[in-house]
Amino acid sequence: MAKDIKQIVANAHETLIADALGAVALVVMLFVGLSLPGMI
After folding, report:
1. 3-class SS at 40?
2. 12 close to 19: Cβ distance less than 8 angstroms
3. For residue 13, what pLDDT band results from cuts at 50, 70 and 90?
4. Where are the alpha helices (DSSP H) in 1-40?
5. Orientation angle between helical segments 13-39 and 2-11, nearest 10 degrees
6. What is the rounded (10 degree) CA torsion for 7, 9, 14, 19?
7. Residue extents of the structural domains in the chain
8. What's the first-to-final CA gap in the chain, in angstroms?
9. Distance of alpha carbon 7 from alpha carbon 9, whole angstroms
């Protein structure tokens, strides 16, 4: 199983980076959206 996971990560390295950046962007937008009512 570990061998399979390593192979998947090796094959999808660029996609994983893009997905991680997308997840970080979503978290940032969530925190900004939640803090906006406090600023107004």
Report:
1. coil
2. no
3. confident
4. 2-11, 13-39
5. 80
6. 150
7. 2-39
8. 51
9. 5
Tokens representing 1? 């199983």
What percent of the chain has pLDDT above 70? 98
Give me the count of residues in the chain: 40
| Predicted pLDDT of residue 5 | 83
Q: Which two tokens stand for residue 38?
A: 């406090």
| The pLDDT value given to residue 2 | 87
DSSP 8-state assignment for residue 12: T
